[in-house]
Amino acid sequence: MAHLIPGYHNATRQCAESQIKALDVHDAPEYGSHEWLDLDAQDPRRYAATLEAAELWRRHCLLQRLRTMIAENTQSLTEDGPNLRPWPSDWPTSRAPRLLPDTFKA
After folding, report:
1. Which residue, 8, 22, 40, 101, has most beta carbons within 10 Å?
2. What pLDDT is attached to residue 68?
């Protein structure tokens, strides 16, 4: 369950954000694009685009896991009555997800 704990994701997100900020990159090409492939291996934009792609993929996977949890709980609710799986006690109950800085493309 550690992969779904908000603190874990906040720390991972903050690590990615701080690395991008330290590189001072604002115009990295999309990972895997022709422009990205043309960059020198030492160009910080290449690393920033790679890190951005990894962070976006991590968020995509998290969203898929959360959707699966919701679907399972919804199915349980409709089939068995109010039989929801317990919400982890260490999860906040009223916290909206924060967005990444503008350096990350959605």
Report:
1. 8
2. 83
Rounded (10°) angle between helices 44-80 and 6-23? 160
Q: What is the mean pLDDT of each run of 10 residues along the chain (106 residues)?
A: 60 87 89 94 94 88 83 66 56 46 49
Q: Are 87 and 66 spatial neighbours (Cβ–Cβ below 8 Å)? A: no
Which of 62, 74, 72, 80 has the alpha carbon at shortest distance from 6?
A: 62
Output the pTM of the full model: 0.61
The SS3 call for residue 25 is: coil
Amino acid at 10: N
Nearest to 55 by CA among 103, 1, 4, 96: 103
